[in-house]
Specification:
By secondary structure, the chain is of the alpha/beta class. Helix content is about 45%, strand content about 15%. The protein contains 17 helices and 15 strands. The strands form two sheets. An eight-stranded mixed β-sheet has the order 9-8-7-10-11-14-13-12, with helices on both faces. The chain has a seven-stranded parallel β-sheet with strand order 3-2-1-4-5-6-15, sandwiched between helices. A hairpin with a 4-residue loop joins strand 13 and strand 14. Helix 1 crosses helix 3 and helix 1 packs across helix 4. It is globular and about 65 Å long. It binds nicotinamide-adenine-dinucleotide. Nicotinamide-adenine-dinucleotide binds next to helix 7, helix 8 and helix 9.
């Protein structure tokens, strides 16, 4: 589908990048071999809406090895790697609808086109695939057996649909397994968000005051990573349990209105909307840096910032726009308020996506074999699949664990035995 990608001439470069990423993705490489033998997706069409990166391409190739025909649209217009899109379209002959930097209308058109292949299974990342299916391609819904959602924000949307009885097929919350939250949300997001922040701003974090909004899995990792680089980290929260966790880890917790005049770097990771508003922007010091790690670009009020500004100086560095306010202060917005690790850096490292996509691939194969038996609800990934993926990643990292002995199993299984 050359007309939907930027430049088929980039295919060779993209293929090299995919091969390089695949070398750091042992779980997916193993699954590709297993799927090739077992063909869990034989005759099935899979529509995927994912960041079009080299790691996603490794997943797409593994699904194809398992017998699926795959159509792929981008889950963020700014994160598409055009060379990867070209390789999947030209080398693999996949239906790819993704070009970096497309406008909002084209972005949703691309998602609808990926659905036009008539999918049996879905892989979504943030919920735009499901939303487009229900709003623009509703007639295709009956054909869908189920799917996987890969991020917290998308799972929240699915739960709202299920609560309203609007979900017509089972969806698996792949982002919620203990292993994914550990490796992707906590560690992968932390490293790549700091990477994006540093690439776009070039700032020295040591000695800076960093405000992290939201102390969930992502926010915790970001706060700890910034702290590790010498920043003074403050946390804002709306959940007392998460706030207590932040306090017990040594972070100062305070309302955002109080943190706004103190912070020098602000990072949102809430999955919510309108977190940093014009009221907070008005209180921030000159040179404050604003970055978002949440899935959608709704956490920082970019329109409010534009309204406050008397001038905007775009690209003072790549992915860094300076907003000049009437009193002479400049606020620096990274990646237009979109997800900073994917826009200003390269997203998660392949090792992290290996685990996250490996769990999605295992869950999807499990779903393909069980779809008719599952209610149209949001389901957890079966814990044994999560443990299997964790075991494979451990082995790849060269770590081994002990096995419970028979007396230990007996002790743990009984309430009669005394110590
Ligand atoms: N950038 C990435 O690569 C990446 C990776 C995984 C998840 N995400 C996204 O990051 C976001 C957070 O994910 P998570 O897994 O940490 O979610 P989470 O639900 O574990 O944590 C979110 C936290 O934000 C808090 N919160 C909500 N509204 C708030 C507000 N107004 N002010 C302060 N705190 C608030 C919640 O109480 C919660 O503790 C989601 O949008 C998710 O999809 C991004």
């Amino acid at each position: 589908m050359p007309e939907y990608i930027a430049d088929p001439g980039l295919a060779e470069l993209g293929d090299r990048r995919i091969t390089y990423a695949a070398r750091a993705m042992p779980l997916l490489s193993h699954l590709a071999r297993r799927f090739a033998a077992e063909q869990p997706f034989a005759g099935l069409a899979i529509a995927a809406c994912l960041h079009v990166t080299a790691e996603t391409a490794v997943l797409a190739r593994a699904l194809r090895a398992g017998g699926a025909s795959v159509s792929l649209a981008a889950s963020n217009p700014l994160s598409t790697q055009d060379d990867v899109a070209a390789a999947l379209a030209s080398v693999d002959g996949m239906a790819v609808y993704a070009r970096a930097g497309v406008d909002r209308r084209t972005y949703y058109e691309h998602i609808a086109l990926a659905l036009d292949e008539g999918p049996d299974l879905l892989i979504d990342d943030g919920g735009d695939l499901i939303q487009t299916l229900y709003t623009e391609r509703a007639s295709l819904t009956a054909h869908v057996k189920g799917g996987c959602e890969g991020t917290t924000t998308g799972v929240l949307r699915l739960r709202r649909m299920a609560a309203e009885g609007a979900l017509a097929f089972p969806m698996i919350a792949a982002s919620e397994t203990p292993t994914t939250r550990l490796m992707e949300n906590l560690r992968g997001t932390a490293q790549s968000v700091i990477d994006g922040l540093l690439r776009a701003s070039g700032v020295l974090l040591a000695g800076k005051t960093v405000v992290v909004a939201g102390f969930g899995a992502c926010g915790t990792g970001i706060a700890e990573a910034a702290c590790g680089l010498g920043a003074r980290v403050m946390v804002t929260e709306v959940d007392p349990v998460r706030a207590l966790d932040a306090v017990l880890r040594g972070f100062r917790v305070l309302p955002l209105a109080d943190a706004a005049p103190l912070g020098e770097v602000f990072i949102t990771a809430t999955g919510s909307a309108a977190v940093i508003t014009a009221e907070h922007l008005d209180l921030m010091p000159d040179g404050a840096i604003l970055a978002n790690a949440g899935h959608f670009d709704v956490e920082i009020d970019v329109r409010g910032l534009a309204d406050l500004a008397v001038a905007v100086h775009p690209d003072v560095r790549p992915h860094c726009d300076a907003y000049e306010l009437a009193d002479g202060r400049r606020l620096l917005l990274l990646a237009e308020g979109r997800v900073v690790n994917l826009v200003a850096a390269e997203g998660h490292p392949p090792e992290v996506m290996d685990l996250a996509f490996g769990i999605e691939a295992l869950a999807l194969a499990w779903l393909a074999g069980n779809a008719g038996k599952l209610a149209p609800e949001v389901h957890p990934v079966p814990p044994e699949l999560d443990a299997e993926a964790a075991g494979m990643v451990l082995a790849a990292l060269g770590a081994q664990i002990d096995t419970l002995t028979a007396p230990q199993r007996e002790y743990l299984a009984s309430w009669r035995l005394r110590s």
